[in-house]
Design a protein that fits this description.
This protein has about 70 residues and is mainly alpha-helical. It is built from three helices and no strands. The longest helix has 20 residues, at about 15-35.
Length: about 70
């Protein structure tokens, strides 16, 4: 049996802009939710809500579209 060397695939990394937008949005969501949190329990919830803020945005947008 002969072995042939196969060429290594070329990996192209591009983008990264979405990560920055998500990060800035996460900080903004934390500021928004933490300003309204009055108890420690609400602050814990605010932290987790800040992590998943795009889900809230999509949900609210779909609810708004449904009304029209």
């Amino acid at each position: 049996m002969t072995t042939q060397e196969q060429p290594k695939p070329t990996v192209v990394h591009s983008g990264g802009g979405a990560d920055a937008v998500y990060g800035i949005g996460m900080i903004g969501a934390w500021v928004y939710y933490f300003k309204r949190a009055e108890t420690n329990e609400a602050r814990v919830k605010a932290f987790f809500k800040g992590l998943v803020w795009p889900a809230f945005v999509v949900y609210d947008l779909l609810a708004l579209l449904e009304k029209k």
